[in-house]
Every structure is written in structure tokens, then in C-alpha cells.
Write a structure and sequence with these properties.
10 helices, six-stranded parallel beta sheet
């Protein structure tokens, strides 16, 4: 064989072998990493008197977010791991924490709170309510409490706020933008087809204000949600619904932190280091440095060995015929 072709053939074989060796190495690393993660992240490795630090500074969706680049910001030139979480995994992890004997309690952190919506908030609150029945504690802390954050925090044994912080417990409202006059100015005339007076989704392109029917259904929805919120808060904070409504109308409570304590909405105004001291006392730790905080992700949910299985279909998003808006799990 010609030495030239012989060299080319040997080089090609070398490249192919190198590629397979490289690929095999990557696969082995992934397998070994998975095994290490499985061995060292079991729930039985959780230290006694550990506290779950449950933060709400990330979006909570119904369906799992498997996109690793969802938090990638090319303009900032950095990359943060996907911080989003889904409702089902949060609730399941809270239920798992009930049975984990080394979990002493939960510390709710509402700093940079991102509301998951009234329905998801209710689900998380109910899961925390079940957690409390085990006798484990729940403490809540924030610099500021909006009404949704406070509703979720009201399930806690004690609620603490930053001394110069504030809270807002005003009632619910709904704002709808209208584009009819704007489209008329730029010469756009929409073609609208709708059936029924209560089909109000198209009203921003048809009217200049809410219709009577839309006002009626929106008011009923908001009143139902508000009543449910006040009922739950009333039971856990031992404050009558009548008083809660009066507090919601009182702007002074949102302006003066001490007023929220006097009203029984907040238990005490303390700094974050004082909050950690309380957690140390609650878990019988002599020093704050001995506190052990863990995230829900460290809890390993027990696998269901039953042959009976239930499929979960995530129908999240607009109804527009797009198949990508329906995710099954």
C-alpha cells in the first residue's frame, strides 16, 4: 500500500478511536456522578434538627421546567442554574418532610417573593398546614409582606418582619387595558367573533371599558378569593374576618410597621440575625453557626411501589390549539 494512503488511513482510525474513547469517558463520568449523587443525597444523611429553608424567589409553575437555559441572560454575560420549581414537586417534598424525623421545622423566607397565583398559593398553604399537624414548627420572615405573601405566611406559628419593613393587606383588584381607541388611531380594525355576553377575553379590542357582565363575573371571582383568604387567615391568626377587613382598609398599617404588630398581624419586628437566633433556640442549638438549613431539593421522595399508577397531564397555557402548551407527566 502506498505510504501516503497508509498514513491517511492510520490517522483516520486514530481519530475515530479517540472520538469513541472521549465519548465513553463522558458517559462514564455521567454514570459515576449519578451514582455519587444517589449515595450522598439520601434523606437519611440529613442531620438532626435540620431546618428546611423554603424561599419563594423563583417562579412556580404547574408543569416541570426542564429547560436548563431558562435563566440564561446573554446581555449580562452570566448563567444561573434553573431556579424554577413546579407545584407538584414542592407539595410532595413538604409531605416527605413530615415523615423525615431529622427535619425540625420550616423557615419561610418571603424576601423577593414571586407569587405563584392564588390557586397554587392555596395548595402550598394546605401542604404546610398538614406539615404543622406533626408538631413541627413553621416560622416566617420577610422585609415586606404583600397580601399573597402574608396569606401564605399566616399558616406559620410566628410571623416576623424587618423593623422598618411593611405589609399590605388591601383587598383584591383587577385592571384590564383597552386597545380599541389606539387601534382606531393607527387604522387597525379587528375582526371579532364571540358567543355570549360573558365571553370577555376579546373586550379590550372591542370596548373602551369593562362591560356590565364582565364587571359582574370579575367581582364575583375576586370576592370569592378574598373571602377564602380572610377565612384561612382568621383561623390561624385568631382574628375575626370583620377586623381583617378593617385592617385592609387602614392605610396606617401598611405605613407604620408597629401598627401591624398591635393589630396582631405580625408577631414581632426583628432583624434577620435575631430571627436566626430564634431558630437556634427552637432547635436547641447553642450557636447560630450550628444551624443546618437544607432545601426541598435535598429531600428524596420515596418511590411508590404500587402497580397502580396515575398519569398527570399538565394543561398549562392559553387555549389556542398549540400542542406545545399541553405537557404530560
Amino acid at each position: 500500500m502506498n505510504p501516503f494512503f497508509k498514513n491517511i488511513l492510520s490517522s483516520a482510525i486514530g481519530v475515530i478511536l479517540a472520538f469513541f474513547l472521549f465519548t465513553s469517558s463522558i458517559i462514564m463520568i455521567i454514570i459515576i456522578s449519578g451514582l455519587i449523587n444517589t449515595l450522598f443525597n439520601q434523606s437519611n444523611n440529613i442531620e438532626p434538627n435540620s431546618i428546611i429553608e423554603l424561599k419563594f424567589d423563583y417562579p412556580i409553575s404547574d408543569k416541570p421546567n426542564n429547560d436548563p437555559f431558562s435563566n440564561f441572560n446573554p446581555l449580562a454575560g452570566d448563567f444561573e442554574p434553573n431556579k424554577s420549581n413546579n407545584l407538584y414537586s414542592i407539595i410532595k417534598s413538604i409531605h416527605t418532610a413530615q415523615e423525615e424525623e431529622n427535619i425540625a421545622g420550616i423557615a419561610l423566607d418571603f424576601t423577593d417573593f414571586q407569587s405563584p397565583g392564588p390557586a397554587s398559593t392555596k395548595e402550598i398553604r394546605d401542604a404546610l398546614k398538614a406539615f404543622k399537624k406533626t408538631g413541627k414548627f413553621i416560622y416566617a420572615y420577610s422585609n415586606y409582606f404583600g397580601k399573597t405573601a402574608y396569606y401564605l405566611a399566616s399558616i406559620a406559628d410566628s410571623i416576623f418582619m424587618y423593623p422598618t419593613g411593611g405589609m399590605e393587606l388591601a383587598g383584591l383588584s383587577s385592571t384590564i387595558p383597552f386597545f380599541t381607541e389606539t387601534m382606531s388611531e393607527i387604522g387597525i380594525k379587528p375582526e371579532i367573533i364571540r358567543h355570549g355576553k360573558f365571553k370577555a377575553a376579546i373586550e379590550p379590542f372591542l370596548l373602551t371599558e369593562m362591560s356590565k357582565e364582565n364587571k359582574e363575573q370579575t367581582e364575583m371571582l375576586l370576592n370569592d378569593i378574598w373571602t377564602d383568604m380572610l377565612t384561612d387567615i382568621s383561623k390561624t391568626r385568631n382574628i375575626s374576618i370583620e377586623k381583617l377587613n378593617k385592617h385592609a382598609d387602614d392605610l396606617i398599617i401598611s405605613m407604620l410597621p408597629k401598627k401591624s404588630v398591635e393589630a396582631g398581624l405580625i408577631d414581632a419586628l426583628i432583624y434577620r440575625d435575631e430571627f436566626n437566633n430564634l431558630l437556634a433556640q427552637k432547635t436547641s442549638n447553642e450557636n447560630v453557626e450550628d444551624l443546618v438549613f437544607i432545601s426541598l431539593s435535598k429531600l428524596k421522595n420515596k418511590k411508590n411501589k404500587s402497580k397502580n399508577k396515575i398519569a398527570i397531564i399538565y394543561a398549562e397555557g392559553d387555549i389556542n390549539g398549540d400542542e406545545n402548551n399541553i405537557h404530560s407527566g
